[in-house]
Specification:
alpha/beta; about 400 residues; about 15% strand; six-stranded mixed β-sheet; Rossmann fold
């Protein structure tokens, strides 16, 4: 049996087909390409029960991943993160079945490792010699580290105020790193101008290559498997470039076509910060695409994306599942980050905090009744954002006394 049942690539706007076994970027219409699989072949080759006995990494779903040969897999053990029940915090919010998918436990400490693992593996398999990308921090760190594992070069550009830890990860991985006096879009323009001068280097900016989304979609497969191959009622996702929510929706559609899940799809919720909320603004207007968000800024750095290339795919996923889009303030998301740590002992990232803050809005508005299975994606470890927790504690003299 084939290791992968990858069939072809498809333009996300026009449906035009493209060759999968060549290095590809955007379609001629400037839209992301989506990987398509021979799902009839997958259905005959493997069952959910067989998958459950495999190694607990995202590669357990290799039939619906793009890497052709197991020898070309570049892995650091990513995937199969815990799905944690949150009873105390759930009671606080009036949610009887609240869950968190904790992506802070994957290599590099964020969900970005999923996209990097699959994207780098496929790039190396297709003969790419190096990768280049703009980043808000965590994606660049993950791709630099996986590129190092694969023996590829990496060129990374990130805003100057990106988290310092992500810059240090890039430097440690041997990446060619540049700080940019601007936002991620400004870094993207510099990368796009540099790549043509570097033979063998691929621009792997968000959705400008087809396979990052394939790594991210495994979150959807894992959620279904961890629920016993049924689906929760609601999934909340912090949305910047939107690859995660697009990938989860893609996984849901694939699993439904495979017959691995049935019934209504989860309502998908795109969560943003009020300081950068292009998807929320578009959703509130009923639009199919967003417009660039002015003066974008939020402490949840990973979702500071003023205009996402795949915005129409995010909105399609939200509309198709009767979901919604919610924006919260920085104060709200930081408070939720702290509350969850206090209630449940899980130190989450500020982007994850945004989702928990959004729960309060959805519960108070009645959009959530309280008895649904609600899954929140925490996309990273809180320890990568130490500046989000003020440190103001007493210093005692050595001969002093604790009050």
């Amino acid at each position: 049996m084939p290791y992968s049942f990858l069939s072809h690539l498809e333009c996300s706007r026009t449906g035009e087909r493209f060759e999968a076994d060549a290095v590809q970027g955007l379609s001629p219409s400037g839209a992301p390409l989506l990987a398509r699989y021979d799902l009839d072949g997958v259905r005959e080759a493997v069952t959910p029960k067989e998958i459950s006995g495999r190694e607990p990494t995202l590669w357990r779903y290799h039939e619906v991943l793009p890497v052709r040969s197991p020898e070309r897999v570049v892995s650091l053990g990513e995937g199969m993160t815990p799905l944690l029940r949150l009873p105390r915090y759930g009671r606080e919010l009036g949610l009887s079945r609240l869950w968190m998918k904790d992506e802070g436990l994957v290599p590099t400490g964020t969900f970005k490792a999923r996209g990097a693992a699959v994207g780098v593996s496929r790039a190396a398999e297709l003969g790419v010699g190096g990768i280049a990308m703009p980043t808000n921090g965590n994606a660049g760190a993950a791709w630099a580290l996986y590129a190092a594992r694969a023996g590829l070069s990496s060129l990374i550009a990130m805003p100057d105020d990106a988290p310092a830890i992500t810059m240090r990860e890039c430097v440690a991985a041997g990446a060619e790193l540049y700080r940019v006096d601007g936002l991620i879009g400004d870094a993207g323009k510099l990368v796009a101008a540099a790549v043509p001068r570097r033979p063998g280097v691929q621009d792997v900016s968000t959705l400008k290559e087809p396979y990052r989304i394939e790594g991210k979609k495994t979150m959807g497969y894992e959620i279904a498997e961890q629920f016993g191959w049924r689906l929760p009622d609601v999934i909340l996702y912090p949305t910047g470039g939107g690859v995660g929510i697009i990938g989860i929706y893609k996984a849901l559609l694939e699993m439904r076509e495979l017959g691995w899940v049935s019934g209504p799809l989860p309502r998908l919720v795109a969560v943003q910060a009020t300081g950068c909320a292009p998807i929320v603004t578009a959703f509130e207007r009923g639009d199919r695409e967003s417009v660039p968000f002015p003066d974008a800024r939020t402490v949840a750095f990973g979702i500071t994306v003023p205009k996402a290339l795949g915005d129409f795919l995010v909105l399609d996923a939200v509309y198709a599942t009767d979901g919604t889009a919610v924006a919260v303030t920085d104060e709200e998301l930081l408070a939720a980050q702290r509350e969850l740590t206090t209630f449940e002992g899980t130190f989450i990232c500020p982007e994850g905090g945004a989702c928990f803050a959004a729960l309060r809005h959805l519960r108070s508005s009645g959009w959530l009744s309280g008895d649904e299975d609600v899954v929140v994606l925490n996309t990273g470890a809180g320890i990568k954002y130490p500046e989000t927790v003020p440190l103001d504690v007493p210093l005692l003299p050595r001969d002093g006394r604790i009050p």
